[in-house]
Amino acid sequence: MRIVLASILLIVAILAVISVIRQLKYKNLFALVFSAIAAVAFGFFSIATIIAEITG
After folding, report:
1. Is the separation of the CB atoms in 38 and 16 below 8 Å?
2. Are the C-beta atoms of 11 and 49 separated by less than 8 Å?
3. Are 42 and 12 in contact, with CB atoms under 8 Å apart?
4. Is pLDDT at 16 greater than 90 in this prediction?
5. CA gap 5, 10 in Å, rounded
6. How is the chain split into domains, by residue range?
7. Residue 56: pLDDT above 90?
8. 51 within 8 A of 1, measured Cβ to Cβ
9. pLDDT for 21-49, tens place per residue?
10. 7, 11, 12, 15: CA torsion to nearest 10
11. Where does residue 28 fall: left (phi above 0), alpha (psi -120 to 50 degrees), or beta otherwise?
12. Membrane-crossing residues (predicted)?
């Protein structure tokens, strides 16, 4: 069940990274910061969940 959660978190992290790239193009600083924080947070939790699932 945790692997499904990790997959969803990873998809959200990838979408946040795409948002960071788009906001760099639009030069929207507030959205850029929010997207970067979301990418880091969701990326961390997805990787941590995957590692916890692999190691048992």
Report:
1. yes
2. no
3. yes
4. yes
5. 9
6. 2-55
7. no
8. no
9. 999 999 999 999 999 999 999 999 999 99
10. 170
11. beta
12. 29-52
Distance separating alpha carbons of residues 54 and 22, to the nearest angstrom: 33
The rounded distance, in Å, linking the Cα atoms of 19 and 16 is: 5
Cβ burial of 12 (10 Å; 0-12, 13-18, 19+) is: middle
Q: For residue 7, give Cα distances in angstroms to 10, 18, 22, 33, 53.
A: 5, 17, 23, 24, 12
| Mean predicted confidence (pLDDT) in 6-28 | 97
